């Protein structure tokens, strides 16, 4: 767990970094599905959660950077509410849990902000994470929050690893259940049930699909067929809201075909070499480009591409099979802090986003630091729509064998391979977090057969 002193220290450091004025951190309200009293499961704004640990709706923090005083703004429960909710903590009790000495009714927030502005004081706000609205956001506050949340403490790493233990069990369950003739939804339901039975929640909607070339495919409407490869991208959230994010690729037949095994080993090699490159000061863009080069080199060896691997990556030709990025930050958000702006979180000063295919979707380019937790997730995706489009345009015909691509897609119904792990950057290198989850061809096939 994370103790009260930690939240107090985080707020003190935030005030020090921002320097002056007031910091306003609003929490989330309940979000109705279709009418007021039928709501989606509540999830607190991650930044407010980081600085308070309070996972309740309709609260806000007001931090005075000049005096160091923090005020919790919340409504005391109405006596009538007890009929529907049972007893809930008072405003004073919530403030005490977070180590906050001052509290006031949430209804007074607007007056407090207007009073500060009338006195000529700056009120610092963040972009609105749920909408991406950045009008009026404070650069000083944004940079301070990103800098603090990016570096994970030992307690935060422990939370991520706690989530990963449940995620390991989810993936083992899927490896055993994903078989020819089984509905994708049945396996998804089993994984979600395992998580729910432990009183936890998913960190993001499950991606479990034999159409893995569709990168964020949240449909589970296929029945598995012989020769299918199933991309299982799923992760549990810890009790304090920290995410895990793991992908494994499952042969529905229980064993990979020889070509599938060769392709899988290419992806695994790219992932292992990318992880080995991670150490403080290394730009993640460099890690991505190396992973791409390994993938292309493997595709050349298997006859799908030709020419020089480094040149193919430089020209963006690798996007025919790997159009996305190699990873992203992980923490209280599965794509940590991206709601505050991917440019600030994954790029920072001096890093610009490429417009080339295979590079433009890279979420993380900046140099990594000790305490960063990142996903490393290279993949190969055989997308018939993308291949047809590129071939019709005559793109990179000197580097891509479109005939080989088409033959493979006709045989295996398109699909994809992705291998993803969560990695902590240490003082001298990197460490894969959590318990080991079957990763090699041999380990995956053994797990499919029922081995641990």
From TrEMBL:
An annotated GO cellular component: cytosol
Keywords, in A-Z order: Aminopeptidase, Hydrolase, Manganese, Metal-binding, Metalloprotease, Protease
InterPro entries noted in UniProt: Aminopep_P_N, Creatin/AminoP/Spt16_N, Creatinase/aminopeptidase-like, Pept_M24, X-Pro_dipept-like
Domain Aminopeptidase P N-terminal as annotated: residue spans: 2-133
Catalytic reactions on record: Release of any N-terminal amino acid, including proline, that is linked to proline, even from a dipeptide or tripeptide
SUPFAM superfamilies in UniProt: Creatinase/aminopeptidase, Creatinase/prolidase N-terminal domain
Keyword Transport applies: no
Cofactor(s) for this UniProt protein: Mn(2+)
Keyword presence, Hydrolase: yes
GO molecular function: manganese ion binding; metalloaminopeptidase activity
EC number: 3.4.11.9
GO biological process: proteolysis
Family, as annotated: Belongs to the peptidase M24B family.
Name of this chain's protein: Xaa-Pro aminopeptidase
Organism for this UniProt entry: Rubrivivax rivuli
């Amino acid at each position: 767990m994370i103790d009260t002193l930690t939240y107090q220290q985080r707020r003190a450091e935030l005030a020090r970094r921002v320097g002056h004025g007031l910091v306003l951190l609003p929490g989330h309200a309940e979000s109705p599905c279709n009418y007021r009293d039928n709501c989606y499961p509540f999830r607190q704004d991650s930044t407010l959660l980081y600085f308070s640990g309070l996972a309740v709706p309709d609260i806000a923090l007001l931090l005075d950077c000049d005096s160091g005083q923090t005020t919790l703004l919340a409504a005391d429960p109405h006596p009538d509410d007890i009929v529907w909710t049972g007893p809930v903590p008072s405003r004073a009790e919530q403030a005490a849990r977070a180590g906050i000495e001052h509290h006031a009714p949430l209804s007074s927030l607007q007056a407090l902000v207007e009073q500060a502005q009338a006195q000529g004081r700056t009120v610092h706000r963040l972009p609105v994470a749920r909408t991406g609205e950045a009008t009026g956001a404070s650069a000083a506050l944004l940079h301070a929050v990103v800098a603090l949340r990016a570096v994970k403490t030992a307690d935060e790493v422990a939370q991520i690893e706690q989530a990963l233990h449940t995620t390991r069990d989810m993936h083992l369950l899927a490896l055993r259940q994903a078989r020819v003739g089984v509905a994708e939804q049945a396996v998804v339901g089993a994984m979600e049930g395992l998580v729910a039975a432990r009183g936890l929640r998913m960190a993001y909607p499950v991606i479990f699909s034999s159409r893995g070339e569709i990168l964020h495919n949240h449909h589970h409407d296929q029945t598995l067929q012989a020769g299918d490869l199933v991309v299982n991208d799923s992760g549990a959230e810890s009790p304090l809201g920290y995410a895990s994010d793991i992908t494994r690729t499952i042969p529905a037949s229980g064993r990979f075909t020889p070509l599938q095994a060769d392709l899988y080993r290419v992806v695994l090699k790219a992932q292992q070499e990318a992880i080995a490159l991670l150490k403080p000061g290394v730009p993640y863009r460099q890690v991505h480009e190396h992973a791409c080069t390994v993938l292309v080199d493997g595709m050349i060896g298997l006859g799908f591409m030709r020419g020089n691997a480094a040149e193919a990556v430089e020209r963006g030709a690798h996007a025919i099979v790997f159009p996305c990025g190699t990873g992203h930050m992980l923490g209280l958000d599965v794509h940590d802090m991206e709601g505050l702006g991917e440019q600030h979180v994954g790029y920072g000063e001096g890093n610009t986003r490429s417009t080339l295919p295979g590079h433009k979707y890279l979420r993380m380019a900046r140099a990594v630091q000790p305490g960063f937790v990142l996903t490393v997730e290279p993949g190969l995706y055989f997308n018939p729509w993308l291949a047809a489009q590129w071939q019709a345009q005559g793109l990179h015909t000197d580097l891509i064998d479109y005939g080989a691509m088409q033959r493979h897609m006709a045989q295996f119904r398109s699909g994809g391979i992705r291998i993803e792990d969560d990695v902590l950057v240490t003082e001298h290198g990197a460490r894969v977090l959590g318990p080991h989850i079957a990763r090699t061809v041999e380990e995956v096939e053994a797990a499919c057969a029922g081995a641990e």
